[in-house]
Amino acid sequence: MPSWWVQARTALIAVIGGGVAAWLHIPLPWMIGAMFASAALAWSREVAAFKGAREGSLILLGLGLGQTFNGPVIAAVVGAAPALILAGVITIASGLVVSRLFMRLASTDSRTGFFCAVPGGIMVMAVLGQRAGADLPSITLAQTLRMVMVVVVFPPLITWLAPHVADTAFSVPRPQVTVWLPALMAAGAVVAIVANRFRFANPWMLGPCFMAIGLSAFDAMPSGVPVPLVDLAQIGMGMSLGIRLTRSFILGSQRLLVASVLSTLVLCVLLAVIAVPLALVFGLPVAGAVLGMAPGGMPEMAITAKALDLAVPLVLGFHLTRVVLCNLLIGPIWRIGVRLGVA
Hints:
- The chain is 75% helix and 0% strand.
- The chain contains 16 helices and no strands.
- Helix 5 (81-106) packs across helix 6 and helix 11 (227-242) runs antiparallel to helix 15 (298-308).
- The mean pLDDT is 84.
- By secondary structure, the protein is mainly α.
- One of its GO terms (biological process) is regulation of gene expression.
- Keywords: Membrane, Transmembrane, Transmembrane helix.
């Protein structure tokens, strides 16, 4: 059990890293700064997060995301469903495109290469890959490194594509913060605990998020979630990524490291190029579509959208759709790829 001093030191370094990144005006500063600072500490020192830090961050993130929905925004997201489904299928199928590259660079079998390459989220791909008989440690390492790469690459890319531009169809005024904020946070925590008990996917974020969406849709949100709490959630998310990047984790398989970095760069370019015409065809904001198709995890990409004020409900819709489709289509897409000789 890590000592309280190790946990406190890790948290302090993460906060300092986020503060420095904010001072330097780096996109998504609190998350990226906390991630790099805690990763630097993890390289030579023991690191640990306080128990419940990631879960608490996800609860805050879920509430902050849910408050961005109302009736018209929900209707706009539902209206974009064909684009969301098409994007989800394309994103999953992109794993077939890069799995061959990954397999050759990392010297894995084709099955493991596929589950390492598909951008479906760390936990989702670990569970599905293990069921399919792929190598679980390789999947966990590859998906974690991909997540780190996407968090670093996409915020500057999105800032360059659409700096400070919000799409009115997918945005609502930020609710006012009231004395009911503690009650809202407590209710979000209870919903998250219940969702976790019933083994929902990503319960700590999606439970509070759906609760807040329901309240917002009926104009019953008791309080907004202030920006400092969203920044705190960024720090928690960044720290949870950074503390995984220990020396042994990074240097444990250098071939896998190279394969993960190169395949992620290929995925980033491929999906960004596809997202632009898809957005234009369906009349969606380009920055939101690019972030929605980014090969990162739902919490990380949603908090990126939140921090950059970019079509949060749309981005969340893209990633929610992808999670559902991953559970439905990963197996069939893998089998089709094998029959076609591309997997």
